[in-house]
């Protein structure tokens, strides 16, 4: 951890922004860089339901462009004295986060948990929980 980067996935939610502040603080303490990651998930609807006004490829391209703009705006608001890099990938969220952590040899993953409980937890996949269970490196979950 002391000489490896910190991976911080974000969905641009307020909870994820809170997790990024933890990642930046830890990175400044250890003098390592932060790698922000946003995963553009496969859009719903594609060839089976025909609900798109644009093709799935056009939609993914638009989603990636919007995510890049949001990422740049967010990085500009951070008051960090260290390198912050960003990466936008598309695919399934959990496998993409885990593959990115492994590829960059992350020393730690800092991820937000939306704190869902009960039926809401049952109906919505818990990305943070899956990352904790499958990651090879330490994971800090921020609520």
From TrEMBL:
Boundaries of every UspA domain copy: 4-143
InterPro entries, alphabetized: Rossmann-like_a/b/a_fold (IPR014729), Universal_stress_UspA (IPR006015), UspA (IPR006016)
Family matches, as Pfam families: Usp
Signal peptide: none
Similarity section: Belongs to the universal stress protein A family.
PANTHER family: SENSOR PROTEIN KDPD-RELATED (PTHR46268:SF22), STRESS RESPONSE PROTEIN NHAX (PTHR46268)
Protein name: Universal stress protein
């Amino acid at each position: 951890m002391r000489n490896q980067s910190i991976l911080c996935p974000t969905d641009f939610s307020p909870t994820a922004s809170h997790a990024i502040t933890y990642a930046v603080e830890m990175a400044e303490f250890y003098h390592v860089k932060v790698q922000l990651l946003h995963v553009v998930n496969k859009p719903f609807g594609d060839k089976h339901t025909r609900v798109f006004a644009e093709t799935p490829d056009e939609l993914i391209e638009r989603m990636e462009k919007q995510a890049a703009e949001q990422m740049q705006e967010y990085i500009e608001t951070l008051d960090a004295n260290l390198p912050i890099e960003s990466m936008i990938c598309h695919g399934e969220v959990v496998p993409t986060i885990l593959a990115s952590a492994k590829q960059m040899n992350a020393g730690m993953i800092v991820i937000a948990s939306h704190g869902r409980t009960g039926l809401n937890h049952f109906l919505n996949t818990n990305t943070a929980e899956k990352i904790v269970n499958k990651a090879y490196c330490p994971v800090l979950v921020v609520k």
